[in-house]
Design brief:
Bound molecules: protoporphyrin IX containing FE
Number of helices: 11
Strand content: under 5%
Shape: flat
Number of domains: 3
Number of strands: 3
Length: about 375
């Protein structure tokens, strides 16, 4: 039944559009006794928006079209409602999508570190078949492609499922992810097709690294959307958290460029580079590798400083800072071992996996502070 009168009601907690005719018909008895707005406010507390959304699907009598602005930045619900059992399904869906995308990133890493990208020379099928010859390299690349397909379906499915229930920054992120998803799928094909004839090195670096960079942005955006949607919570370390997020993002970008420009051993020793604190030759590869190290030391120093100062002052979030520093320490150590062992494969895989884990972790911490123009930040700068 199409609503005859649809009104946008603004309460102190949230706004929504409502089919007044249906509501009046259903609650006319109550409405006689209570003011209209008070009645709606009562309803809003009684039913979480999600319950109402479900209810609206099975009932043709009531149609609530929520503009979910309960939490800040367009989150799906307020803090008080975040424990609601009805959030289990979307939380599980988006959470599994993030976990699967992470696994896909590691799988992609495995493809490139083992040089299996060319083992399926055609695209989208592999050796023209869904069941390609059983060789390790072929199956690594084929599994990566199949996982990519599943991740694409999961990501698009989660977004379609949740799109109408979110607004603000989350909606913006969802739209961006969908756009990037299409791009990354096309780039995935292009990578295979241009890698086969071995085009100009720079074009290859740009294409291959843009594929992984976009995949990384999708992964990070999913985590931001997850945190913005399901958990807000009070935080007081805005400046530090955002700086850390920015630095780690840049460091991951540098790492990806180090890898795809074949600069991994451009500084073949450690802690020095070509036996000097400042490398004697500043070839682009050396510069890139050296900058990657310098940024790693910066992130290391920053997270260590934060942990020490928090412990000394007895400040909050000790656990969070310990985890962050622990991850960075582990990541940097693995980076050093890559150099010392001259690129031992397990270290390469672990370094990639660790990098995305750290990025996801700091993105999760930063999400409450990321706002779109016109929206309000959650807590004061720290
Ligand atoms: C916060 C610390 C660090 C982060 C977040 C980080 C991140 C990354 C990322 C994302 C990659 C690309 C991996 C891939 O595409 O699979 C990478 C590659 C690399 N990183 Fe780091 N890194 C860090 C510290 C270090 C340190 C301290 C070193 C060495 C002293 C190092 C050496 C390398 C090398 C040699 C590569 C290329 C590996 C390859 O060819 O696969 N990294 N890093």
């Amino acid at each position: 039944m199409t609503p005859l009168v649809e009104t946008v009601v603004k309460t102190d907690k949230f706004d929504f559009a409502i089919d007044c005719q249906s509501l009046t018909a259903l609650f006319s008895k109550k409405l006689k006794d209570e003011p209209f707005l008070k009645m709606l406010q009562k309803l809003s507390w009684k039913w979480s928006p999600f319950k109402v959304w479900h209810f609206s699907r099975i009932s043709t009598k009531l149609k609530f079209f929520f503009n979910f602005s309960l939490g800040e930045r367009g989150s799906l619900m307020s803090d008080t409602m975040s424990s609601n059992n009805n959030m289990f399904a979307p939380k599980l869906l988006l959470g599994s999508t993030i976990a699967f995308t992470y696994a896909l990133l590691i799988m992609g890493n495995l493809v490139t570190t083992t040089g299996s990208g060319l083992d399926c020379p055609d695209w989208p099928l592999c050796h023209g078949s869904f069941n390609p010859p059983k060789q390790v390299g072929i199956w690594i690349e084929w599994t990566h492609r199949l996982m990519g397909g599943i991740a694409g379906i999961l990501i698009a499915g989660s977004i379609i499922y949740m799109f109408k229930k979110v607004s603000g920054a989350v909606k913006f992120l969802f739209k961006m992810i969908l756009g990037l998803l299409v791009t990354v799928i096309i780039l995935g094909g292009v990578v295979v097709l241009i890698e086969a004839p071995l085009l100009d090195n720079l074009v290859r670096i740009a294409t291959v690294s843009s594929h992984i960079i976009i995949a990384t942005i999708i992964f990070t955006s999913l985590i931001l959307a997850f945190r913005m949607t399901f958990k807000s919570g009070e935080r007081t370390e805005k400046v530090y958290t955002l700086w850390l997020f920015g630095l780690v993002s840049f460091q991951v970008l540098l790492g990806i460029l180090v890898r795809y420009s074949n600069s991994s051993l451009a500084c073949p020793d450690w802690p020095l580079c070509h036996g000097a604190i400042f490398p004697p030759s500043m070839m682009p590869e050396v510069l890139l590798h050296y900058t990657h190290r310098l940024f790693a030391y910066t992130v290391f120093g920053l997270t260590l400083w934060k942990l020490v100062s928090t412990v000394r002052s007895g400040g909050e979030n000790k656990l969070i800072h310990s985890i962050t520093f622990g991850l960075v320490l582990m990541q940097a150590s693995i980076g050093v071992f890559i150099v010392l062992t001259k690129m031992f494969l397990p270290f390469l895989i672990a370094h990639g996996a660790g990098a995305f884990l750290i990025l996801g972790w700091v993105a999760f911490q930063a999400a409450p502070y990321l706002v779109l123009p016109g929206e309000t930040a959650e807590s004061p700068a720290g």
